[in-house]
Specification:
With 245 residues, the protein is of the alpha/beta class. It has a domain at 4-68 and 77-102 and 125-146 and 190-243: Rossmann fold (3-Layer(aba) Sandwich), CATH 3.40.50. Helices cover 32% and strands 17% of the residues. It has helices at 11-28, 43-54, 81-90, 110-123, 160-166, 185-189, 204-212, 240-243; strands at residues 4-8, 33-36, 63-66, 68-70, 100-101, 129-132, 154-157, 179-182, 193-198, 230-235. It has a seven-stranded parallel β-sheet with strand order 1-10-9-6-2-3-5, covered by helices on one side. β9, α7 (204-212) and β10 (230-235) form a beta-alpha-beta unit. α1 (11-28) packs across α2. The model has no long low-confidence stretch (mean pLDDT 96). Bound molecules: fructose -6-phosphate. The site of fructose -6-phosphate (F6R) has 13 residues, from loops.
Amino acid sequence: MSVAVQIVPTPEDLASTAANIFASQIQEYPDSVLGLATGSTPVDTYARLADLYENGLSFEDVTTFNLDEYVGLRQGDPQSYHSFMTTHLFDQVDLDPSRTHMPDGDSEDLDEACEEYERLLQDAGGIDLQLLGIGSNGHIAFNEPGCAEDSLTRVVDLAPETVAANSRFFDSEDDVPGQAITAGIATILSADKILLLAYGENKAEAVCQALAGEITSDCPASFLQKHPDCTFLLDAKAAELLTEQ
Ligand code: F6R
């Protein structure tokens, strides 16, 4: 089993290529279950999907599950991943709101919310195509270095470097929630197909570790080497350490 790698020149090419892969999935299987990510990486991909919607691609029978959500932010909080998805995708296309799912980081019983999320995923038949980004420390979703390969959806502490990286979306680092609900490594690996996107030189080291390093929880994305149908779609800068090898 090995991860497929596709390298495109620029982040713009990355977004249009990724959007086309998702569009093909939806055209072939209009009732697809998609796994979605937040962060900077997929923003332009979602914009290209919105363009494709304007040109006739319908999401009306699609179901979505997001990977993660901060703990302690209300759904409507502008910094919540729920708000992010609403802005960048849910409000831009004809997705049925009852088919879009986000972990409930504002639940009074977070453990029950995690179990419920796994149940909902199973009831939907699992993810057909999972979109991922990668942290510069190799995390996928909020599975930080040291996470367990058999982990499911659960509450996690964010690594200090993740808090620092994500502080760009908040007024200050102190405002970044210290915890999140995240899909686990086993949750992610149960998807039928996985597409990981990365652009920029600050992802090059993590990409190289994930693809060419040993499979270890020190680099959670390296667990993707065990998946039978995983593709890394990279721009030239994120791939630069691979092409040097
Ligand atoms: C977000 C997520 C994270 C991000 C990663 C990269 O849902 O799962 O793992 O994909 O932190 O973030 P960006 O894209 O902002 O560099």
